[in-house]
Design a protein that fits this description.
The strands form four sheets. Strands 1, 2, 10, 11, 12, 13 and 19 form a seven-stranded mixed β-sheet that branches. The two termini are 43 Å apart. Helix 1 runs parallel beside helix 18. Helix content is 42%, strand content 22%. The protein is globular, with a radius of gyration of 23 Å. It has three domains: 166 residues, FAD/NAD(P)-binding domain (3-Layer(bba) Sandwich), CATH 3.50.50; 169 residues, Polyamine Oxidase, Chain A, domain 2, CATH 3.90.660; 87 residues, no CATH class. With 479 residues, the chain is α/β, with parallel strands linked by helices. It contains 18 helices and 19 strands. The model has no long low-confidence stretch (mean pLDDT 96). Strand 3 and strand 4 form a beta hairpin. The structure holds flavin-adenine dinucleotide. Flavin-adenine dinucleotide binds next to helix 1, strand 14, helix 16 and helix 18. The site of flavin-adenine dinucleotide (FAD) has 40 residues, from helix 1, strand 14, helix 16 and helix 18.
């Protein structure tokens, strides 16, 4: 069946893209628009990777990773996708925090955060301005020695409440910790602070449908349910891929699969320099997630309690506690009917950061038990904000790091790819093997919907210039 899906594929493509996460889709689209012949191979039956959704009987539909992204998505979607996609992006205005240190609601932008920091937390306005400016000024080429913990210590010493306000949402958005380089915080925080949090109206299903349409218009050969097993190389150059036992030749490969899997499994460590492999092996994976999906019965309604609710009963922000199995820090994403205009349905998704190691080795029985515990504690927490919510819910289920690994093949279900050091390894791949590129959640900065899309564009440009040079030298050799 899967082999049949490649029966009418061409023998050669300029570029083969492995994986249809947002970075893979965007890379493929840009390469096709540049005139390259592109084959996109996705192992799942759906395109989108972590940007996905699922349906359940009773008319329920759940989005997995559509909780919020920065305003930059509008520009990126307009420039690299279509105006229609960009026009469906709308702001979420109700972001709530509720924890033992503070309870407040914000529009999550620089003006409102400044007001909250000054009026609610009593910080000097100048200190807040200096902090915002320092965060905004950070870029990848900066000194990477300062940690986020040191950044907060410099501006808000002894203020664990302020640290929690500034850090908790970003830790949910990119898996960064207080001990990661401060730029992993500064860049993502500043992206959000520019104009708040946005979401795609119509749901992830509509977004991916629109992207598929655009890819087809631009001539990308899209194939799902095809797992790439091997990236073929000869004399340090990419020659093609093997998928479902079929070899397809190409000029370049853009892998959107997990960085470490690409290097260690699909290409093979023996094909790289020892020093590079050492560096690649040392790259740490980012954390994974757990979610609880709660579907509200048809005909039931919910009062508006905000769009995103960051809730916790932990006394302070703690990066380690945030991933623990008995976590109390979670984000409730509230999906009111306007997420899918025309619908009258409500859904709630609870997301928590999680460690692969806490879930991977459980026996089948313990795994089920822990999932039920996660569901129970999540519903208990939600009752505080929506009393009697259990009576309104007629579908509930949970996912764990194992679920994310299963559906996306991201090693250890890593929600945001790799830690910071992964970015350099990803960027250095083509220096090791000609024609081999990687784009996808990596290095914390290039993660989330916006990071993945933007990295897809950056790498597509590199692939395109590589192909241009390659074709020019082939023409010269032939003449
Ligand atoms: C629970 C959760 C909540 C999130 N919330 C948000 C949010 O609110 N906002 C936000 O901006 N981001 C969020 N994210 C993160 C965001 O979804 C990801 O960072 C982003 O979608 C990753 O895109 P990607 O292109 O890097 O790769 P992925 O989405 O991981 O896609 C990789 C693709 O490659 C395919 N693949 C892998 N190996 C092979 C192979 N051998 N052959 C063929 N195909 C292969 C996979 O099936 C997959 O489709 C969330 C993620 C999770 C899990």
């Amino acid at each position: 069946m899967a082999r049949d899906r490649l029966a009418d594929a061409k023998d050669y493509y300029d570029v083969i893209v492995i994986g249809s996460g947002l970075a893979g889709l965007t890379g493929a689209n840009n390469l096709a628009k540049a005139g390259r012949s592109v084959l996109l191979l996705e192992q799942h039956y759906n395109f989108g990777g972590m940007a996905t959704w699922f349906k359940r009987p009773g008319g329920h539909i759940f989005d997995i990773s559509l909780h919020g992204f920065p305003v930059g998505m509008i520009k990126s979607c307009r420039k690299y996708w279509t105006r229609e996609i960009a026009d469906s992006i709308v702001q979420l205005k109700g972001v709530r925090f509720d924890n033992p240190q503070f309870s407040l609601q914000t529009t999550f932008d620089r003006v409102d955060f400044t007001n909250k920091l000054v009026d609610h937390f009593g910080i000097e306005k100048q200190t807040v301005e200096d902090f915002f400016n320092a965060s905004r000024a950070m870029d990848f080429y900066d000194d990477q020695a300062m940690t986020t913990r040191e950044l907060f210590q410099k501006f808000f010493p002894g203020r664990s409440d302020v640290v929690r306000f500034l850090m908790e949402p970003i830790a949910y958005a990119n898996g960064s910790t207080l001990d990661d380089p401060a730029i992993t915080y500064g860049i993502v925080f500043s992206n959000f602070m520019s104009k708040g949090v946005y979401i795609f109206q119509g749901g992830t299903d509509k977004l991916i449908r629109m992207m598929k349409t655009e890819l087809k218009v631009n001539g990308v050969d899209l194939r799902h349910s095809i797992c790439v097993d091997k990236i073929c190389t000869e004399d340090g150059q990419v020659t093609g891929v093997v998928a479902n036992g079929t070899k397809i030749a190409c000029g370049a490969v853009l892998s959107n699969a997990n960085l470490k899997t690409t290097i260690e499994k699909m290409v093979g460590p023996e094909k790289f320099d020892d020093a590079f492999i050492k560096e690649a092996k040392a790259v740490r994976l980012n954390n994974s997630s757990c979610q609880v999906y709660m579907g509200i019965k048809k005909g039931e309604t919910l009062d508006n309690i905000g769009d995103l609710l960051f809730t916790s009963v932990d006394p302070e922000f703690d990066s380690t506690r945030l991933c623990a199995k008995d976590v109390t820090s979670r984000t409730f994403s509230m999906y009111y009917p306007d997420i899918r205009p025309g619908s009258d349905r409500y859904a709630i998704v609870s997301s928590t950061n999680a460690n692969w190691s806490d879930w991977a080795t459980l026996s089948e029985q313990d795994y089920e038990k822990e999932k039920q515990h996660l569901i129970k504690t999540t519903l208990d927490a939600l009752e505080k904000y929506i009393p009697g919510v259990r009576q309104k819910i007629d579908h509930v289920e949970a996912s764990t790091p194992k679920t994310f690994e299963h559906y996306t093949m991201q090693a250890q279900g890593a929600t945001f790819g790799t830690k910071f050091e992964g970015l350099q390894v990803s960027m250095d791949l083509p220096k090791q093997i000609e024609g081999l590129f990687h784009a996808g959640s990596v290095g914390i900065i290039m993660s989330g919907w916006l990071g993945a899309i933007n990295y897809g564009v950056i790498v597509a440009n590199e692939v395109d210039s590589f192909m241009l040079t390659k074709l020019q030298s082939q023409q010269q050799a032939a003449s």
